[in-house]
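Quick one, tokens below:
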């Protein structure tokens, strides 16, 4: 059986709608890595995330007004093409502003290249081939200053003693003579320079002054480095995305509403709600999988997703979703309008008459049209303005509407920014990699909220929630969700980042270690622990000599190990002078991590329980002729006062708990170490207090909701009348009118769900 063009239209539209819903939530899994890659602080990344709302707020009114009077399929297609372009723009920032690669162009000391070649590449730890240095030592250092001033292990070889001496006596004749002799005996080669580059590119540092000096020279501030380039590219992409996403939500549901048989309407609306839930879940799950990949598919040796400096392949998701969305969007934009089955054979009804051909109502069938079928526009601008002002004035006089709107603004202000930065908080608090966090958020938070919405719908019918009873239900659900958020403020542990933060609070933001000749100032964060579980900022700060116990980047046989072990660490206060990530204790954090998400699942369920009653209160509180305007005005204010500023405010709140900023030229980059205890308490107390504050509006609504009917109940007389009308030949008209009422309510309810989700 051939598929009709109308069916093809809904297949294309459903595909576009589904892909668009996935991409909207993917940004939350990418923002953590965007901060790390481009050294953007949370306060700026919060502004960046809000870019979509900067564009959404002024455009949504224009789109809903003019788009509804035009070819809605073309408007939706154009909007999704913009979303696809926005995804390409965001992904392009990775290529236009690539990650800094180690390409050492500074002077490489011959002594450093020789030591790496001797100790790490050739593995000549007995130094049998280098007795020449012992023989030349009296000529290079006649007064034996190198050995006399050495304070380390006496067993250390003579070359290491020279390197430490030259750290404290830069420019001395002894160091110049040493460099000259090594350069003559072991000349520099391309292979040796490549080995030094490999050591400089490692995501961690050793206690080696000469190697760390070369690293600091290479990564020194360059004049053309700036975070504004990638920030503006991503900000611009999100602006375009904000413009594009106004069209599927504001025009898609009415388009389906006008082209679906009334008896199938609940099925289609259920599908739309299912897509709204499934899209974000898939977006987070895909983000979790892509986060296992490194940003350039070639992670530095020894760096894993468990490390704080890991940068996931965030840009690939935007590229995939943009590519998948672009094709169906173009098809939708050029989809043939109206007479879709013009070439199909005529169909006859029971009386032998030709049935009217199926038509696709791409222009709203409820608006007034002229004789040619074109939409009639209001005549003057002043008429539109005066009518709009009168409607808004009436809405603002509605006590229930104002109270419910105020509560929604506070709730969204609390939730939106908290959700954007939740993954970052969980990584800091529990030391769990991002791909696991995204999986847990999708399976508990979003699914739990969806279950709550469904249970809330069933509860309304079962408990017959009306007026004050429904308002009390919403208030109680909000109170329980707020209390659970307070409970999560007590769920925490000492991750390795938390331990390093405690060290900063005691000693200040300077990690001197036990040796000042290591030059660890510019060494990146790579937390390790000794066998007792004590944390160190990096192997360099633990005083570890250059090299590994179980690993080597120059030996393929030892290149594949799960965890690195660093040995000969002078600052470790036990007999086993070793440090490793595997020595960090995680059992307590794993247990607390699971408890946090158990609380979140319950909080999401209770949050969802109050959604449907709360939205029906808003719908029933205003006159029928004002419902559409009330939904649009409500969404406008929520976007302006809540979704727009929320990520910016929460980004600033998170930065308030920063203990150590990474240096990015003359300014601070992203934060690397936080006070995790302060961050945990501050986040959940502020979030819980905002939710408690919104209860004021719930009490206000409860006070004024007396007698408010949310669901019309049938009386016995009405039931008898309904049975009698089943025999009435005019029953089709009655059913049609009832279906239109259900259709209109379902559409308005779904619009509120959209606004709640945004």
């Amino acid at each position: 059986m051939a598929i009709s063009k109308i069916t093809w239209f809904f297949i294309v539209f459903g595909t576009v709608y589904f892909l668009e819903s996935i991409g909207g939530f993917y940004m939350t899994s990418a923002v953590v890595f965007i901060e790390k890659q481009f050294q953007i602080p949370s306060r700026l990344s919060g502004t960046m995330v809000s870019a979509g709302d900067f564009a959404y707020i002024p455009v949504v009114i224009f789109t809903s007004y003019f788009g509804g009077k035009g070819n809605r399929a073309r408007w939706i297609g154009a909007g999704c093409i913009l979303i696809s372009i926005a995804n390409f723009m965001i992904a392009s920032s990775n290529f236009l502003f690539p990650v800094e690669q180690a390409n050492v162009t500074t002077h490489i000391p011959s002594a450093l290249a020789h030591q790496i070649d001797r100790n790490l590449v050739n593995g000549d730890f007995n130094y049998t081939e280098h007795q020449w240095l012992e023989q030349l030592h009296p000529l290079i250092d006649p007064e034996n200053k190198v050995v006399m001033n050495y304070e380390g292990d006496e067993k250390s070889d003579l070359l290491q003693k020279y390197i430490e001496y030259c750290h404290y006596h830069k420019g001395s004749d002894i160091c110049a003579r040493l460099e000259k002799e090594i350069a003559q005996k072991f000349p520099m080669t391309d292979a040796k320079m490549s080995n030094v580059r490999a050591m400089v590119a490692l995501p961690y540092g050793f206690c080696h002054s000469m190697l760390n000096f070369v690293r600091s020279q290479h990564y020194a501030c360059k004049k053309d480095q700036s975070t504004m380039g990638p920030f503006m590219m991503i900000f611009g992409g999100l602006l375009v995305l904000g413009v594009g996403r106004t069209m599927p939500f504001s025009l898609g549901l009415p388009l389906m509403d006008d082209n679906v048989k009334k008896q199938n309407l609940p099925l289609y609306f259920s599908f739309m709600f299912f897509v709204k839930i499934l899209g974000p879940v898939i977006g987070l799950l895909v983000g979790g999988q892509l986060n296992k990949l490194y940003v350039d598919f070639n992670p530095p040796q020894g760096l894993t997703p468990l490390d704080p400096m890991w940068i996931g392949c965030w840009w690939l998701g935007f590229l995939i979703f943009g590519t998948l969305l672009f094709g169906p969007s173009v098809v939708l934009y050029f989809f043939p309008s109206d007479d879709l089955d013009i070439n199909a054979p005529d169909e006859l009804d029971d009386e032998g008459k030709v049935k009217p051909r199926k038509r696709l109502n791409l222009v709203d069938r409820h608006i007034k049209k002229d004789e040619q079928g074109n939409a009639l526009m209001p005549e003057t601008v002043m008429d539109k303005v005066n009518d709009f002002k009168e409607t808004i004035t009436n809405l603002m006089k509605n006590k229930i509407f104002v109270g419910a709107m105020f509560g929604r603004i506070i709730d969204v202000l609390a939730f939106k920014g908290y959700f954007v930065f939740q993954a970052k908080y969980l990584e800091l608090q529990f030391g769990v990699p991002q791909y696991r966090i995204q999986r847990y958020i999708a399976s508990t938070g979003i699914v739990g909220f969806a279950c709550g919405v469904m249970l809330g719908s069933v509860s309304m019918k079962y408990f017959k929630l009306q007026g004050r009873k429904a308002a009390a239900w919403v208030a109680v659900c909000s109170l329980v969700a707020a209390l659970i958020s307070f409970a999560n403020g007590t769920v925490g542990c000492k991750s390795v980042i938390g331990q390093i933060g405690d060290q900063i609070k005691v000693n200040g933001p300077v990690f001197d270690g036990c040796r000042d000749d290591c030059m660890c100032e510019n060494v990146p964060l790579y937390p390790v622990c000794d066998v007792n579980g004590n944390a160190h900022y990096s192997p360099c700060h633990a005083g570890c000599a250059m090299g590994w116990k179980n690993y080597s980047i120059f030996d393929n046989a030892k290149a594949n190990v799960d965890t690195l072990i660093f040995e000969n660490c002078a600052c470790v206060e036990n007999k086993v002078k070793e440090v490793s990530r595997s020595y960090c204790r995680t059992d307590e954090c794993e247990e607390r991590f699971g408890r946090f998400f158990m609380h979140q699942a319950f909080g999401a369920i209770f949050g969802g329980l109050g959604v449907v009653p709360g939205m029906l209160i808003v719908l029933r509180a205003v006159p029928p002729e004002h419902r559409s305007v009330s939904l649009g005005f409500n969404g406008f204010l929520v976007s302006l006062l809540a979704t727009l500023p929320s990520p910016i405010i929460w980004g600033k709140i998170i930065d308030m708990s920063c203990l150590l900023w990474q240096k990015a030229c003359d300014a601070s980059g992203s934060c690397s170490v936080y006070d995790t205890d302060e961050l945990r308490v501050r986040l959940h107390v502020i979030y819980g207090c905002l939710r408690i504050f919104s209860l004021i509006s719930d009490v206000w609504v409860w006070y004024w909701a007396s007698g408010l009917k949310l669901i019309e109940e049938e009386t016995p007389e009405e039931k008898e009348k309904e049975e009698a009308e089943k025999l009435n030949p005019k029953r089709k008209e009655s059913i049609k009118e009832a279906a239109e009422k259900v259709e209109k309510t379902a559409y308005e309810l779904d619009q509120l769900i959209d606004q709640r989700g945004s």
